[in-house]
Amino acid sequence: MLPGALPEELRAELVAFRRDLHMHPELGNQEFRTTAAIKARLEEAGLAPHVLAGGTGLVCDIGMRDGDGGGGGDGIGGGVRSVLALRADIDALPIPDTKLGVEYRSTVPDRAHACGHDVHTTVVLGAGLILAELARKGQLPRPVRLIFQPAEELLPGGATDAIEAGALDGVGRIVAVHCDPRVDAGRIGLRHGPITSACDRLEVSLAGPGGHTARPHLTTDLVTAAAKVAVEVPALVGRRVDARSGLALTWGHIASGHAPNVIPQRADLSGTVRCLDLRAWRDAPDLVHGAIQEIADLYRAKCEVNYIRGVPPVVNDPAIADLLGDAMAARRGRASVEDTEQSLGGEDFSWYLERVPGAMARLGVRKPGERTVRDLHQGDFDVDETAIAVGVELFTAAALLDANL
Length: 405
Hints:
4-stranded antiparallel sheet; single chain; about 30% helix; about 25% strand
C-alpha cells in the first residue's frame, strides 16, 4: 500500500480551490490572481515557490537537498538525484461561460476555464501538498518540482518561457494530465508515442488592383483567388505528404470586399495547420507556403504568408507512460487505465518533451453514465470534480514509484 492517501478535508479544500479558479478565469500571461492563490497555499504548507519573471506562473521544489537536480540521477542512495516535474497550465480561454445552475460559473465576462486548466492546476497543487508532507517524513524517494505554467493557450505557448526561466533545470522526467470529457471520471487514458498533434497558425493576405465586377479579365479577381486558395491549397498539401502524417490545413476565417459590384483589393484568410507526424510538421511551412504561392500566381494575386509556428506533437516516452499506468493501477486498479487515441489538438507540453522525457495522461472528467457529449473549448464545459482526487492520487503514486526508473 503506497503512502500519500488524500485526506477528506484536503479533498474538500481542493474542490473549493478549483471552483474559486473557475469563477475567476484569467487569460494567458494575465494570471496574476491565480498565481497569487497558488503561491499563498504553497507557502502556507511551508514551501518556497518562485514566481516566474513575467509575474505569472511559478515553480516550487519539494524534497530537494544539496547536490540534487543534476539531471540524470542515480537512485535514492546518495549523489545527484534527478527531479520529477509535475506540470500544470493555469490560463483560461476568451469565451463566455454558458453553464446554467452552477454556483461556480465564471464571474468574468467572456472568460471561462473551458479546457480544464483549473483542474490541472488544482491536481498539481494537491499532489504538491501531499508530497511535501511525505518529504517531511522522509518518505519521498526523489525530489519533485511543481511547474504552474502560464499561457498554454497562446502560441507558441508559455512552456517556452518557463523553460527559458529554468523550469527544467535538473529535471530528469516530467508528467502532466489533460482533462478528457470522453473518459469517465475515475479513469485515465494513456498511449505510447504521440498523443496530440502539432498545431500551427496560418495567416494569408492576397492583394490586387481591384476593379469593376463587369471586367474581371482586366484586373485580379481577388475573391475567386481567395476561394481557390481556401479550397485547393488544403487538397494540394494533402497530396504532397504521406497520408499517414495526418497533415490537415483548415480555415477558420475568410474576409474580402464590401460591395457586390466591386472587385476588392484585399482578401484575408487564416486558419490552422495540424499534423500527427513530427517530421512532416518540420516540413510543413515550406510546403504550405509553396502551395499558396502557386494558386496565387495562377490568379495574378500578390500574396503574403505569415506561418506562425505553434507546438510540435506531444510524444509520450513509453517508460514514463508505463509509470503513469502503474501509478494509476496502484491507486485504482489496472481496469482504471484505458488506451487513448492520438488527438488533433495541440498542447505546449510538447516543448518540455523536446528537452526531457515525459508523458501526458488523459484525465477522465465525464460523470459515469452521463449521456451528454461535451467537448473542450465550449462554454458549457464542466467536469465531474471527483477527477481532482484521481489526478492527485495519480501524481503522488507516480512520484513514489519514480525511484524505480
